[in-house]
Here is the input.
Amino acid sequence: MTGTGARIIGSLRMTNGKGTVRVADRYDTDIDDLWSALTEPRRLTRWIGDVKGDLRLGGEFHARLTSSWEGPGRVDVCEPPRRLLLTMSPGQRDETVIEARLTADGDQTMLVIEERGFTPNELAAHGAGWQAHAEDLAAHVAGREPADWRGRWTELTPAYRDLAGDPVWQAERAALMGFLQAQRRSVLAIIEGLDEDSIRTAVVPSGWTPLGVIQHLGHAERLWFQKILTGTASPLPWPPNESGPFVTAHPLDEVLDFYRNQCAISDENLASTALTAGPAGEVPSFLSVADEIHTVRDMILHMIEETARHAGHLDLARELIDGRTGLGPR
Here is the structure.
């Protein structure tokens, strides 16, 4: 498991009125060792809490967790070393089901834990709680002491409230995305109707062209909301641009499609990521804002800033090309 910080490894969903918390991560140990950490009481004590009773298939046990939850449980499925299914508080109003699935990947192991059966109001708290437990498990298998669970839960809870649809967080998300999408529409509206020659014409001494700016913005969306946000990026549709900065020889329709596709991928990635989450990838140190970007919120604000700045450039170019002004929604 990699560093923690603002990284979010969980997701939340509602199905037929019941909520599910899901956490997934890769652990730096083999599948048998991770299974042992999940099922042996002496090891469970070191990362999640005291568990006493019969942990064999069909057995019943009593757990007292670091989260302060305490109650009975039952082992419904036990398939070493790949799958474990537990019913917590069986037969009671707060009954939930916990399922753990392990998948070997070389010397590492992928672990997915789901707990199902929560009310909508419980999702955020339990999402934060499970991530804190998962991080303590990673510390345990690495030979480290667990963190302050309560402190880490407090730190993570705002991000999970965002994922759970807390109205305050959703209002901020809607405002940020609304401004970003308006600026995107502006840059496309400003160049609409320009012919092939005009859209490739440099009208200022620095030599940039309107189409080159659109391509640059596509690369910026890909950089911030794929490579930096998720740590990976979709393949480029063509080799790296060899025409120089803010200039492109690629076909007009392909550049416009590239920009629209990168924006769509950005929106998809952002929709499933909390505003308070940190980037999974690295922010390149050569960027002037590198020291100012810590969360998804920071990335969206920067992309609003960058898109608006280039919309101003395109406004200037359009007026110099054919005299038209005031194009776009903003």
Summary: The two ends are 44 Å apart (CA to CA).
